[in-house]
Design a protein that fits this description.
Blueprint (H helix, E strand, L loop, with lengths): L1 H4 L25 H15 L5 H8 L5 H16 L1 H11 L11 H14 L4 H13 L8 H9 L6 H4 L2 H4 L3 H11 L1 H10 L7 E5 L2 H8 L1 E3 L8 E6 L16 E3 L6 H6 L6 E5 L5 H8 L3 E6 L2 H14 L4 E4 L10 E7 L13 H5 L2 H20 L1 E11 L8 H10 L3 E3 L20 E3 L17 E8 L2
Parallel strand pairs: 5-6, 5-8, 6-7, 8-9
Antiparallel strand pairs: 1-3, 1-4, 2-3, 9-12, 10-12, 11-12
The structure holds S-adenosylmethionine.
């Protein structure tokens, strides 16, 4: 397929980032962001890169507006990839030619705009044709690009399709249907079609912040040091009131639950293992605990340090592999383990197409070892919250059942309905929490849903 083999459409001698080049005439407006979207899609689907890194590289040198357009195109192309491929496939009677360069990513990104973005169709088609002409291997098919794109439907059932069958890789659709049933799996896939709203964890008077930020307070449990508010519309984060003063940070509603459920009190010695970039660390410090934040990634710990500086918070910061950590025991530990991140597909649609079934088994093995280490670092009577932003039961429910079976001195501290407010329905029969992107429904998609997370609370015998 073109996406695996094709290179981004770059002309010999041309500036690959779409900037001004002495050797070619200036290109028409709007080409550079589309070229960047094609390159980013190739990097994600062909190179397994994350969307943020792929876009950062592909958009280098572009103006902010063009960067935003490249991001919008790439994101929607990944969100609706299955539907787009099916629609294109029906119009390519003989499939993709054998050696066609970037033909497929050019068609996919153009179709994403025609079908799902509010941009003029004629410009999209013209630019797609010019991108094809600029790629030696795709150039013979420039006429095909024009014909296929002009035959795409504008809206209607064909463009919508079934979110589970079309826009979810088959192996994930099978997993979610097995874990949650066909209806819930379809609801999860439908939630993935919408851009996630922006949630902030605010310190102090949540109602006052909600008013100032034009947001709603999410009723997710009793008052705590921090509260989640959800913005009614999309705005640049750095321009919002309170950013410079460090009074809040971006954190999905589900991601804010594990630190709340640990229930730390002022003065407790608490470890945040796998802490970076620090959303949960900030909550624990804001609650008054003495926090030791540990992560093995120096780059991610750099981001944690910058975040803590903006927020005026001062946890102890340790760059280390948790598995090699030697320290005095803790009163409480949060282990937000590395995982497949399939619960974050609303925000990161690349995850659905970049992860492979084999990734889960190796993560499960690492999570088990991190759990054993975390238990060994608890004082007698100490509490542990384990969380993952994964929809896969092996990384959540299965992990905790296995731990309880092999660690007799450990018991579950079940989560009670009044701890979760409007999310009480996310509590499992065993007293853990399983959030799904289909929860917290609202007529307005931006105000709906939350990341898919698993969390469990445990206590070491006293
Ligand atoms: C899910 S992310 C943590 C997100 C973070 N808790 C937050 O709320 O901002 C998982 C983190 O685990 C870290 N990690 C993975 N394996 C680790 C290990 N063996 N020791 C320490 N950190 C590890 C990764 O570097 C990554 O930052």
């Amino acid at each position: 397929m073109g996406l695996r083999q094709g290179a981004p459409p770059r002309r010999r001698g041309a500036d690959p980032r779409g900037g001004a080049s002495a050797r070619r005439p200036p290109e028409s407006a709007g080409v550079a962001p589309r070229r960047a979207a094609v390159a980013a899609l190739v990097a994600v689907l062909g190179g397994g890169e994350g969307i943020d890194g792929a876009l950062a590289e592909a958009s280098e040198g572009l103006a902010d507006r063009d960067r935003a357009l490249a991001r919008a195109i790439t994101t929607v192309a990944l969100r609706r990839l299955g539907s787009i491929r099916a629609l294109l496939g029906r119009r390519l009677e003989r499939g993709y030619p054998r050696k066609c360069g970037s033909l497929e990513p050019i068609l996919v990104t153009a179709a994403a705009q025609i079908l799902y973005l509010d941009v003029p169709d004629h410009a999209v088609v013209d630019i797609a044709v010019s991108l094809a002409k600029a790629d030696r291997n795709a150039a013979p098919f420039a006429g095909l690009v024009n014909a296929v794109l002009r035959r795409l439907p504008r809206g209607g059932d064909e463009a919508e399709g079934d979110p589970l069958a079309h826009d979810t890789p088959a192996w994930l659709a099978t997993r979610w249907t097995g874990a949650y049933g066909a209806d819930e799996a379809r609801a999860i896939a439908a939630a993935h079609r919408h851009e996630a709203g922006l949630d902030l964890s605010v310190v102090g008077d949540a109602a006052a912040w909600a008013e100032q930020l034009d947001a709603v307070v999410l009723p997710l449990g009793p008052p705590a040091a921090t509260t989640t508010v959800r913005l009614r519309d999309s705005r640049p984060v750095v321009a919002l009131p309170g950013f410079d003063e460090g009074r809040w940070w971006v954190q999905d509603a589900a991601a804010a639950l594990p630190a709340r459920l640990l229930g730390v009190s002022a003065g407790e010695r608490v470890a945040d293992l796998c802490a970076a970039p620090g959303g949960k660390t900030a909550q624990l410090v804001a609650a008054g605990a003495h926090v030791v934040a540990v992560d093995r990634s120096p780059e991610r710990m750099g981001r944690l340090a910058a975040n803590m500086e903006r927020l005026g918070l001062a946890p102890e910061q340790v760059v280390a592999d948790v598995l090699a950590l030697e320290t005095d025991p803790f009163d409480a530990i949060l282990l937000d383990a590395p995982c497949s991140a399939t619960g974050t597909i609303r925000r990161h649609p690349d995850v659905a197409w970049v992860k492979r079934p084999g990734d889960i088994a190796s993560l499960v093995e690492l999570q088990g070892r991190l759990l054993d280490k975390a238990v060994s670092l608890l004082r007698p009577g100490g509490r542990l919250v384990y969380s993952t932003c994964s929809l896969e039961p092996e990384e959540g429910e299965g992990q905790i059942e296995a731990l309880l079976a092999r660690a007799p001195g450990l018991e579950r501290l079940p989560i009670a309905a009044d701890e979760l407010g409007a999310l009480a329905g996310a509590i499992t029969p065993r007293g853990d929490v399983r959030t799904l992107p289909s929860m917290l429904p609202d007529a307005e998609p931006r105000l709906s849903g939350l990341d898919g997370f698993f969390m469990a609370r445990l206590q070491r015998a006293g």
